[in-house]
Design goal:
Number of helices: 18
Distance between the termini: 57 Å
Radius of gyration: 23 Å
Bound molecules: uridine-5'-diphosphate-glucuronic acid
Structural class: alpha/beta
Family: Belongs to the UDP-glucose/GDP-mannose dehydrogenase family.
Shape: globular
Organism: Tersicoccus phoenicis
EC number: 1.1.1.22
Number of domains: 3
Pathway: Nucleotide-sugar biosynthesis; UDP-alpha-D-glucuronate biosynthesis; UDP-alpha-D-glucuronate from UDP-alpha-D-glucose: step 1/1
Helix content: 40-55%
Strand order of the largest sheet: 3-2-1-4-5-6
Pfam family, one: UDPG_MGDP_dh_N
Low-confidence stretches: 62-71
Length: about 450
């Protein structure tokens, strides 16, 4: 099928490449010329495992292998010229919905602009499919506008659940596909077009749910709010564990064995960041307020503040370990990305902690395998060192804040030969305290004795 993807950020590029992998002829459009130039030479403008290989593979016209979809490769091109979307049957809108400056609500200007400008190129029977995370009610409003301009085009809300770091696999093998389509005489034919687009994942066992617009929009924000709540729950337990002398990792293992609870997303530590969970729970609260249902989501305020407290606690713990002051101390921060296998530093807990320690007089050195360029743009005043050994040299304390494999696999004996003082703070509860302590380190973590 001929498909267009409007917006080539983390979501759009992955979606475009994966749709081509599923056998479709895809054009990706973005206003950012630098991004499009990179994509035209098969280079992703950000780090995402497997994506560069996928882009190169498709643009070289190879047939499917390795991705395990069983579908033949389609074609993929990128342009800044929106007119090129004309002729596609389905148009995916994948632009960002960041938090509005100084407010909790989502900034919908890119979504509104994408729908308004795409309308000029839609033909009767085309589908325009929203994938961006939006406040409930947005799809209904956009559908009304669309009906006025192109009455025979159809709007679908099809939220995306991919995780950065696993984006290619999550898109090729989603656990569920949600189609938000109004319950009218066009519902079945519209759903059939989506079934054709997603034929390979559906054949591979992905669940398919057809809902109305508001339910589809809410599925996305509810899922992210649940995940954020789960993380903040275990982090609240970590606070209690610290007060009571208990170990939150053992607690998580034990409660996670109850399959009604489950062990996933119960990793206590520095908490959640990134371009999704923090801004999505805030936008959700703002929208609930507009709908007169703010009481339903007041608990999310607590989820947010538990999460933010973790960063403050990490700084306090580091200061405590450094004998009460950062002055004259070299603090090595391992990790800048908001999570491993990503170069995304949006609302990165690691960088937030690094910046606070620097403000309090610490001589901070930040290292990360992928995210230093982005980190430098956001926090230009921090010192960055790409080489792990150099970053560790002369450290008075080492803070593991993003759990990249390079850091979780550090050898305590070898690391001890590089640093000035053997102090390690495990912000993600991923190291074995026994081996580090046995090698003479002071080991501290959030929620562990
Ligand atoms: C999240 C959701 O997981 C995706 O399903 C969703 O599609 C995406 O947002 C989105 O809205 O686009 P993502 O932001 O890529 O995906 O990252 P997650 O894997 O959810 O991690 C978010 C944060 O939580 C990270 O900072 C991570 O370190 C932290 N986390 C995660 C914990 O602190 N503890 C855990 O147990 C799990």
């Amino acid at each position: 099928m001929k498909i267009s993807v409007i917006g080539c950020g983390y979501l759009g590029v992955v979606h475009a490449a994966c749709m081509a992998r599923l056998g479709h002829d895809v054009v990706g459009v973005d206003v950012d010329e630098r991004k499009i130039a990179a994509l035209q030479s098969a280079a992703a403008p950000f780090y995402e495992p497997g994506l560069n290989e996928l882009l190169a593979d498709i643009q070289a016209g190879c047939t499917a292998h390795g991705a395990g979809t069983g579908a033949g490769a389609g074609s993929l091109r990128f342009t800044t010229d929106l007119e090129q979307i004309a002729g596609a049957r389905a148009h995916f809108v994948c632009v960002g919905t960041p938090q509005r400056k100084g407010e909790n609500a989502a900034d919908l200007r890119y979504v509104d602009a994408a729908f308004a400008s795409a309308a000029a190129y839609l033909a009767p029977g085309d589908l325009i499919i929203g994938k961006s995370t939006v406040p409930v009610g947005t799809a209904g409003r956009l559908a009304e506008d669309l009906h006025r301009t192109v009455p025979e085009a159809r709007l679908v809300w099809n939220p995306e659940f991919l995780r950065e770091g696993h984006a290619v696999t999550d898109t090729l093998h989603p656990d569920r596909l949600v189609y938000g389509i109004p319950d009218d005489e066009h519902r079945e034919t519209t759903a059939a077009v989506l079934d054709e687009i997603y034929a390979a994942p559906l054949a591979g066992g992905s669940a398919r749910l057809v809902t109305d617009y508001p339910t589809a929009e809410l599925v996305k924000t509810a899922a992210n709010s649940f995940l954020a709540t789960k993380i903040s729950f275990i982090n609240a337990m970590a606070e209690l564990c610290e007060a009571a002398g208990a170990d939150v990792t053992e607690l998580a293992d034990a409660i996670g064995l109850d399959d009604r609870i489950g062990r996933k997303f119960l990793n206590a530590g520095l908490g959640f960041g990134g371009g999704c969970l923090p801004k999505d729970i805030r936008a959700f609260m703002a929208r609930a307020g507009e709908l007169g249902a703010d009481q339903a989501l007041t608990f999310l305020r607590e989820v947010d503040s538990i999460n933010m407290r973790r960063r403050i606690r990490m700084v306090e713990l580091a200061r405590e370990v450094c004998d009460g002051s950062f002055l004259g101390k070299t603090i090595t921060v391992l990790g800048a990305a908001f999570k491993p296998e990503s170069d995304d530093v949006r609302d990165s807990p690691a960088l937030n902690v690094a910046a606070q320690i620097q403000l309090q007089g610490g001589n901070v050195v930040v290292t990360d395998p992928q995210a230093l360029t982005n980190a430098e743009q956001r926090y230009p005043d921090l010192r960055y060192e790409p080489d792990l050994q150099f970053a560790l040299a002369g450290a008075d304390a080492v803070l593991l804040l993003t759990e990249w494999g390079d850091y979780t696999g550090l050898d305590p004996e070898k690391t001890a030969t590089l640093v000035r003082a053997r102090r390690i703070l495990d912000g993600r509860n991923v190291l074995d305290p026994t081996t580090w302590r046995a090698a003479g380190w002071t080991y501290r973590a959030l929620g562990r004795p």
